[in-house]
Every structure is written in C-alpha cells, then in structure tokens.
Design goal:
The complex is a heterodimer of chains A (193) and B (251).
Chain A lengths: L2 H12 L3 H23 L2 H18 L9 H19 L12 E3 L15 H6 L2 H11 L3 H12 L4 H8 L3 H18 L8
Chain B lengths: L11 H13 L4 H13 L1 H18 L10 H11 L17 H22 L1 H11 L1 H9 L11 E6 L4 E8 L12 E6 L8 E4 L4 E8 L7 E8 L9 E8 L6
Parallel strand pairs in B: 1-7
Antiparallel strand pairs in B: 1-2, 2-5, 3-4, 3-6, 6-7
Helix pairs in contact in B: 1-2, 1-3, 2-3, 5-6, 5-7, 6-7
Classes of the chains: A mainly alpha (193), B alpha+beta (251).
C-alpha cells in the first residue's frame, strides 16, 4: 500500500467508516498476529492480544497525527497490549466467539478452535522452531520484544527504540544481550541449529 | 556503528561483547580487524560466533504465524457492538439517542402522528399513542418488530478444518421485543440435520451467526430459519432465503 493510500485509509478510519477498518485489518492482521504470537507463544492469547490491539488502534486512530510511521505506531500498540497483559498477569480465558455466539445443548463443535492453527499444523512445526520459540519465551519481556521486532518483523534499531520508548543505545545493548542469552539457552540443542 | 582503535590482541570477553555487532556489520573497520585477529587464534570464540550466527539465521527464518480464518469476522463483530463509538463517532455511550435527537424525534413523532391520523383513522392511532406515550410510540415505529429481508442479508460459506462454516449476516434484526426486552434468536439452516442451531443476540445493526456444517449448502441460496426465544413479544419466526457466497473458497 502506498503512503498516500494509507493516509487516505487512516482518514476514512477516523471518520468511522467500516469499509476502511475492514481494509486496515486485512492489511495488517498477519503482521499483528505474528508479532503477538512471537511475544506470547500461545495461539489463543495471540488472538486476544491482536483483537485488543486492533480495538485500541481504532479507538485511538483519531489521535494519530501521521508524523510517525503508521506501522511503527501499530507495533507500539501491539507491544504495549502484550506488556500490559504481562504486568497484570491475567489468567486468560479462551472467550473469542463465545462472547456473542452460543451453541445449542446438543451441538457438536466448538467454534473457538478456528481462531488459530490446528493442533495438526502445530505438530508439524519443526523441532528447531519449538526450541527457539521456547527460548524466546524465557527472555525478559523487553528483550523478547526486541528480538521479535528486529528478527521477525524486520524493524531497525531506531524503529524499535520508537516502539518501546527507549534510547537507541539501550535497544542495541539489550538486543545484543538477548541474542547471547538465546545462544546460551540453545547450547544444549545446538545440533539442531 | 561501533568504533574503536585497532588493537593487536583482544580478550575473549571483549570479543564476545562485540560479536553481535560484528555479525550485523555494525563495527568499524579497525575493530573488525581486531576481532578477526582474535578469532583466528581463539577456537572458543569462533565457536561462539558460529553459534550466534546460527541463532541469528534461525530467528530470521522463523515461519510467520497467521491468524485463524475468522479473525477479521470476530474483530468486526466486536466492533459492531461498538461500546466506544468506534464505527459511529457520534455515539459515545450505550444510549441509542442523544437528548437533541430525542427532542427532535418528539417533534417528528407528533408530526408523524398527525399524518397517520389523516391516513389511517384517528381513533386507532390516538389509542396507540395514548397507551405507549409519544416517545415509546416513535421508538416502537422505528424499531422493526421482526427480521427484515432487507438488502444486505447474506450467507457466506468458507471451508474449515471440519467441514466448514456458514457465516450468516442479518441486518436490522430487532434487538428488543415489543415489551422492551432483549431478544435472543435461534438461527439454523433449514433442512440440515448436521448443523446445530446457534443462539445470537442482535446488535441492532448487523448480526453474525456462524453455523458449522459438515458439507456446504447446495445451490445459489440457502434457507435460514430464525426463531426468537419463547416469550418474545411481537417478534415472529421467519425463514429467509439468503444469497450464498462461496467466493472465499474460490467457488
């Protein structure tokens, strides 16, 4: 999407146009969900984080002035949603669709299972990826966020600093530490890498 | 960019501190040479470098995880409940009317009542208004008492892991019954024993029902049965014929 198209889309969102919100979701849902999942390591929680993040975006879009990159602003919101949840240490309920759709007593399927990849596809994930995600999950929150933003979302040090509200030097040093920590955590299974 | 003087020998601790920047190419030429020299002599640091590069490569090649097929539907449905006026910026509370609109509506109610008096007979309308009061009468007139076959009602089929889901969208489904109580509807596909009915409450504007089915409905339309729960006043059950969209499956 070009910058001009994105500005028009955001302007339409500010006016509350449903079609604009729909387009915005389509444009960013994969990036948002991927970031959320890599931060929390859980498909259902990633869904909750992503929904909350988009709702925050839509509530706050009128405050977006356009002087920053929209995706950087969006990433900041997703990361803040994740960090807020970690701070509150909520016990997550898998509500999703049950909030507004209920099945009859004799129904068979629960619709909540369609909010993420199936168990079968999860099982297909490589062993290496499992160990890597587990190691990422053991990092401190900010280091985890930096690793994910840099290595999976491709943000620069400057963009990460903007997302997390830190100085660039802080980002670099913590990111370095995070990489070395991952290296140590994965030492026992280094033959996989 | 990490800058430094070229040194003839670096210690392992110093080298390992810089390895991450070395891998990303963020050290200047002088330090690069120093690190290179150390790595030539130190197998342990070479091992550290190899391990770091492997982790770096693995991080960069992690598969992207995607949301489930109904993520956007769920999100849009949450937004349509709209407690914070996301879709309608003028609506900032759970009230359906603002005071200004209400006062204007009151005037409109009287005007509408006068028109109906002429067209439908004075005695019937006066009785109705007298029973409900002018505001309730206007609300009663403007809130549909049954599902409408309004333009926009639709059904979309999308294949899922177990058969598929029929996404039914109903517009202007009455949220309250004649007594002002919230209405719950049972929505089902007519003639399909493999599909359980789902229970939904209307948001007033757009309501979605997700109906799991083992196989897709045949034909270009689908009959959807909508039944209000027992005790709903002034709401009748209906069977709607909805156009069926299979484009999500490339059909």
């Amino acid at each position: 999407m070009s910058d001009a198209s994105e500005r028009l889309l955001i302007d339409n969102c500010k006016r509350g146009e449903k079609a604009a919100f729909d387009t915005l979701i389509k444009s960013y849902e994969k990036r948002v969900y991927n970031l959320a999942y890599r931060l929390c390591g859980n498909y259902d929680e990633a869904n909750d984080i992503s929904v909350d993040a988009f709702l925050r975006v839509f509530q706050a879009v009128k405050l977006f002035r356009g002087d920053a990159n929209f995706s950087t602003w969006l990433y900041r919101i997703v990361t803040n949603v994740y960090l807020d949840r970690r701070k509150r240490s909520l016990n997550k309920q898998h509500l999703s669709l049950e909030e507004y759709i209920e099945l009859e007593e004799n129904s068979v399927a629960r619709q909540v299972e369609d909010t993420g990849p199936t168990p079968a596809s999860s099982a297909e994930e490589s062993e290496r990826a499992v160990f890597l995600q587990r190691a990422i999950g053991e990092l401190p929150d900010y280091q985890r966020a930096m690793i994910v933003l840099f290595h999976t979302e491709g943000l620069s040090y400057e963009e990460i600093a903007e997302v997390l509200g830190l100085k660039i030097g802080t980002v670099k040093s913590r990111l370095n530490r995070a990489r070395l920590t991952l290296r140590e955590k994965l030492e026992p299974v280094k033959e996989l890498f | 960019m990490v800058r430094g003087r070229r040194v003839t020998s670096m210690h392992c601790i110093d080298t390992r501190e810089l390895l991450s920047d070395y891998v990303s190419g963020d050290v200047d030429a002088a330090l690069t040479v120093s690190i290179d020299n150390h790595l030539e002599r130190c197998s342990e640091c070479r091992g550290e470098l190899a391990g770091l590069r492997a982790v770096w490569s693995a991080l960069g090649s992690m598969e992207r995880v995607e949301p489930g097929p109904f993520f956007r539907e769920n999100l849009l449905t949450r937004m349509e409940r709209d407690p914070d006026g996301i879709l309608n910026p003028s609506r900032r509370s759970s009230r359906w009317w603002t005071l200004g609109q209400l006062l204007q509506a009151r005037s409109l109610a009287f005007a509408a009542a006068a028109l109906v008096l002429v067209m439908a007979g004075a005695e019937v309308v006066q009785t109705q208004r007298a029973e409900l009061g002018p505001i309730s009468w206007l609300v009663h007139q403007l809130m549909p008492s049954q599902p409408t076959a309004a333009h926009g009602n639709s059904a979309e089929w999308t294949t899922g892991p177990k058969g598929g889901i029929l996404i039914v969208r109903l517009y202007n489904l009455a949220r309250l019954d004649g007594a002002g109580h919230p209405v719950t509807y049972h929505v089902s596909v007519d003639g399909r024993a493999d599909g359980p009915a789902v229970r939904v409450t209307s948001s007033g504007w757009s309501t979605r029902a997700l109906l799991p089915l083992a196989t897709p409905p045949a034909g270009k339309s689908v009959q959807v049965h909508i039944v209000p729960t027992d005790g709903s006043i002034g709401i009748s059950e209906q069977t709607l014929s909805l156009p069926l969209d299979r484009s999500a499956d490339g059909l």
